[in-house]
Amino acid sequence: MKMYTLKTVLSFPLFMVFFLGIGGTCAFAQESETSKDSAAFSDVGPSLKELGEAQRDIDRYEEAQDNFNENVDRFMNDRMRYNEARAKFDRARSLYEQEEHQFNKTYEKFSRERDRYLEARDKFVGARERFQEARGTFFGSSINAANKSNADRMEGKPGR
């Protein structure tokens, strides 16, 4: 028996006709199966549409999630900056309160010193007035005595 190689078989026109016949039958059978399945796949159409909408919803959700995460990051950064600013403010307020306390102590000391100065000045003014009165009285009586003595001499009265 003679063996045929694939090349001789494919070159044989009858085999080609046979092959095309079987292929055509398969294609017809597949087409009829496809027409049966197309009715079944017609129900899949809305499901695919729903899948597309679901995918869009997922995309929107992911975008919203990204926006939310960005907002959370922004919020956390703002909160961190606020906490830093608050800490700086608290330090500044503490320094201000220390300076204010020191100023109040210094002002109280100044007030006591001023009060002592005013009291001493009042004593000095009173002492000066008393001194001037005493001097005026002393010199006034001396002047009066001297004037009287001079007047007596001029009149020829003997001196004392």
List keywords for this structure.
160 residues, 0% strand, mainly alpha
Please, could you describe this protein's structure?
- By secondary structure, this protein is mainly α.
- The protein has a domain at 50-154.
- It is 92% helix and 0% strand.
- The protein is built from three helices and no strands.
- The chain has helices at residues 6-11, 13-42, 44-155.
- It is rod-shaped, with a radius of gyration of 63 Å.
- The relative contact order is 0.02.
- The model has no long low-confidence stretch (mean pLDDT 79).
Quickly describe the structure.
Residues 1-29 form the signal peptide. This protein is mainly alpha-helical and 160 residues long.
Per-chain topology:
Layout: H1 6-11, H2 13-42, H3 44-155
Distance between the termini: 195 Å
Beta-strand residue percentage: under 5%
Q: Give the C-alpha Rg.
A: 63 Å
User: H/E series, N to C?
Assistant: HHH
List how many beta strands DSSP finds.
0
Count of helix runs: 3
Uncertain regions spanning at least 5 consecutive residues: none
Q: What's the main sheet like?
A: none
Mean pLDDT: 79
- Portion of residues within helices: over 70%
Gross geometry: rod-shaped
Derived from helix and strand composition plus strand pairing, the structural class reads mainly alpha
Q: What is the quaternary state of this protein?
A: single chain
